[in-house]
TrEMBL record, chain B:
Enzyme Commission number(s) of this protein: 7.-.-.-
Protein name as it appears in the record: Ion-translocating oxidoreductase complex subunit C
InterPro entries: 4Fe4S_Fe-S-bd, 4Fe4S_Fe_S_CS, Ion_transpt_RnfC/RsxC, Nuo51_FMN-bd, Nuo51_FMN-bd_sf, RnfC_N, Soluble_ligand-bd
Native source organism of the sequence: Niveibacterium microcysteis
Job description of the protein: Part of a membrane-bound complex that couples electron transfer with translocation of ions across the membrane.
Residues noted as binding [4Fe-4S] cluster 1 in the record, renumbered to the chain: C373, C376, C379, C422
Binding site for [4Fe-4S] cluster 2: C383, C412, C415, C418
Subunit record text: The complex is composed of six subunits: RnfA, RnfB, RnfC, RnfD, RnfE and RnfG.
Amino acid sequence: MILQTVASPHARAGESVSVVMLKVVATLVPATVYGFWLFGSPAFWLWLITIASALAGEAVCLRWAGRDPVPLLKDGSALLTGWLLALSLPPWAPWWIGVVGGLFATTLGKQVFGGLGNNLFNPAMIARIALLVSFPVQMTYWVVPAGAPGLLDGLLITLGHIPVPDAMSSATLLGHAKTDLARGVDLLHTELPGHAFNWVGARVGSLGETSTWLIAAGGVALLTMRIITWHVPVAMLAAIAVPAAIGHAVDPARYIDWTTHLMSGGAMLGAFFIATDYVTSPSTRAGQVVFGLGCGLLTWVIRTYGGYPEGVAFAVLLMNALTPAIDRLIKPRVYGRTFTGKPASVQKGKSK
Amino acid sequence: MGLRELLNGVRWGVHPHDDHKRPAADVPLRVMPLPARLCVPLLQHVGAPALPVVAVGERVLRGQLIAAAQGNVSAPVHAPSSGVISAIGEVTAPHPSGLPFSAITIELDGKDEAGEPLTPQVDPFSLAPAEVSQRIADAGIVGLGGATFPSAPKAQLGLKLSVHTLIINGGECEPYLSSDDSVMRVRADEVIDGVRILMHATGATKALVGIEDNKPEATAAMRKAAEGFASIEIRPVPARYPMGSDRQLVQVLTGKEVPSGARTASIGVLVNNVSTCAAIHRAVRVGEPLYRRIVTVNGGAVAQPGNVLAPIGVLIEDLLRFVGLKETPARLVMGGPMMGVALPHAQVPTVKGCGGILALTAGEITDTAPSACIRCGSCVKACPMGLLPLELSAHIHAGEYDKAEAKGLDDCLACGCCAYVCPSHVPLVQTFYHAKGEVWKRAQQKKRTEFTKSLAQARKERLEREARERVEAAARRKAERAAQQAAAQQAATSASANTAGGASA
């Protein structure tokens, strides 16, 4: 018999890239579906449009690069990017926000760097920041999760044919706090729109933001499936919570408490799904801890002292830029070598 | 770090969910009936190939020397059974290339007539360590864990470097394989005796036997056999690939690391495999050379997987015929699935280092086309040496071999953990094999260039020296001539002066 001959190893662990991506997507499903229920069909249409645009952007770039887009689209990375971007958008944002964001994420955010594995920044987050900076009004137009419209009405809202009544809009919790602080009203005298610990997530925020518990549950599922490790999420959440707790203890009128910090904005989504992105985070355990700490600390700093009420996307992008430096500086010690890479010294026998 | 790693204290390596060791490990050891023909290779060890000492047509007996060791690092080869030498020539090597290598082919007569034992039976502990090593060398014992380093020079090295601890490798971490497991279960007393003999030969005062905790029967049998020998300790170690790698086993058992680029002996330990110890027992106590061993035959295509005591040099097709095949295997592998070599076909003989033959089905070898690296870091977590496989691979693909070397390419064990866990199926370990070859080739090229340069330099110097010498010689001749002329002139003038003087006088 003639056999095909190849090099070892002759066995492989089963997980392929697309299985990993699809598992991540699966852990996002509960929070997403709950978001649809909370914010109604406009959220669903926006989600669909964003993902379709992300896939289209990827396909066009791959076609231009002379590669067959179909097998590469199947790796699920563009789907995940579009999905994560959709979860970070205002649920009633107009259709073109989804189109611009989706296209931006996979073309300028990913394919210009050379496609999967080569991008320096998280594609979903860079698209979100591009949208936020370019279209600040549409990107901060939040609706109160009540009176969800039907499927068709929702589509008309997304397409811009039905104007959204002003009475439905409100600021997010962090946005409200920021505005009041800027007006000189301290946090002890402000009336926050709903509390972050609201279990049903019935408060103002992006599509995947208010159902914090479902996002966190998805993150725990990722941990148990060993798709991510604890290093990034724990470090990031700790680095948000610790300064927040200290600040609140020192001056509760100026600093939001740590539970609100963890439960609002993109903290959970960022810690479990965005900052843990393989491509744009360091590859060593120690590096991931440093990266997570940086993401968390920057998030708190931007939220507390910066011009924007929410800082996860900015923080993650800033740390993405530092990832190559972290990877260069923090390396595991090679067996039999010192930390500087020199071979360890030889002790002669009979030392015991 | 996951919970299991935290509990084990072992953060490297991989843990295949199904190690495929059972049921092959649990069925009783079978003895393979003699085949019609054996092809005994001359190179079954690292070092120089053995030199044939028999001729075609000659009849040989079981245990008879058929090829002698050549050089310091080499091992002799013995006839596994009685028969007539039919050929001394090339057969296919157990290597994916399918290239030929030299072997002695014996047509067996089926009588299995034994020759004289190698040495008289005496108490090995009454012999000098050097004599024990000589007996090990005469029996052609090599490391049976797969590295096949001749055991006698290793023992002598241990003696020279004052080794204090023997590490006995009962790890057998490769999935599917259970030949060491089988040796420890069936021949625990022989293994322990071999360990004691080896301690005597190397001067070590302590022996630690590391056995993976997925072999409880072997551990129990070895514990029982080691009772009463206080210097031999049986130590269960976590079942985690590549626990059977000497560096990893040394680290787990002694807490020490072998410095990069050094041998384990440099920290006072010597690693030997359990099957090697059993072979040393037989060589020194009975005078039996190494001509057979236990081979695990396993894989989805095998009808009756198990451990088989088979003569060395048996063709894989005969071995597979003995255990039966359920289906045509998609791949034949000598060794385990992690580091074993794929065989070009089944007309390949076994060697001393062959602990397993796998006939794998298409479902067991999931070959997928590689996709882009997503920098997930799985390879970094899996690497038992603390290397960054994704970074090494990137350097190699960019042609930056010197950078890859600086980042520890030489430290790579080629254990395959990185390629095993890679979700993108990037052929990492294959890349490192290639790079090591390339680095070696470049080093050779550099050496050659330097040699040529030194030759050219020498020629230049020689030519210059010759030219200088010619000039000097010419100058000297000229000076001599001038001196002669001057002398002649002097003589002439003085003569003329004399005559003139004479005339004047």
